[in-house]
Amino acid sequence: MNKGLLTLLLLFTCFARAQVVDTWQFANPQQQQQALNIASQLRCPQCQNQNLLESNAPVAVSMRHQVYSMVAEGKNEVEIIGWMTERYGDFVRYNPPLTGQT
């Protein structure tokens, strides 16, 4: 029985996947909700159709932390999305404004 349990345990550990977890501290739940809402509206520039919350690409992690930092500084959604758009272009927005290029 111990051998079977050990084998099962080894199988689980071999196939377990490490998950990156952000441990950002917010001043209040409203700031956390705002940051999550904004990050869900922005697309990872490296990944195919993944928002910043879904992607673990280095650029997405960096962008997610930038969003968290800007929310903690008191920036609003328009300012943060505007900053991200200036830096990464309209591609990072799931709903870009209608222009001649879109």
UniProtKB/TrEMBL annotation:
<dbReference type="GO" id="GO:0046872">
    <property type="term" value="F:metal ion binding"/>
</dbReference>
<keyword id="KW-0479">Metal-binding</keyword>
<feature type="domain" description="CcmH/CycL/Ccl2/NrfF N-terminal">
    <location>
        <begin position="8"/>
        <end position="102"/>
    </location>
</feature>
<comment type="function">
    <text>Possible subunit of a heme lyase.</text>
</comment>
<dbReference type="GO" id="GO:0005886">
    <property type="term" value="C:plasma membrane"/>
</dbReference>
<keyword id="KW-0732">Signal</keyword>
<feature type="signal peptide">
    <location>
        <begin position="1"/>
        <end position="18"/>
    </location>
</feature>
<dbReference type="InterPro" id="IPR051263">
    <property type="entry name" value="C-type_cytochrome_biogenesis"/>
</dbReference>
<protein>
    <recommendedName>
        <fullName>Formate-dependent nitrite reductase complex subunit</fullName>
    </recommendedName>
</protein>
<dbReference type="InterPro" id="IPR005616">
    <property type="entry name" value="CcmH/CycL/Ccl2/NrfF_N"/>
</dbReference>
<dbReference type="InterPro" id="IPR038297">
    <property type="entry name" value="CcmH/CycL/NrfF/Ccl2_sf"/>
</dbReference>
<keyword id="KW-0349">Heme</keyword>
<dbReference type="GO" id="GO:0016829">
    <property type="term" value="F:lyase activity"/>
</dbReference>
<dbReference type="GO" id="GO:0017004">
    <property type="term" value="P:cytochrome complex assembly"/>
</dbReference>
<comment type="similarity">
    <text>Belongs to the CcmH/CycL/Ccl2/NrfF family.</text>
</comment>
<dbReference type="InterPro" id="IPR017565">
    <property type="entry name" value="For-dep_Cytc_NO2Rdtase_NrfF"/>
</dbReference>
<keyword id="KW-0456">Lyase</keyword>
<keyword id="KW-0408">Iron</keyword>
<dbReference type="Pfam" id="PF03918">
    <property type="entry name" value="CcmH"/>
</dbReference>
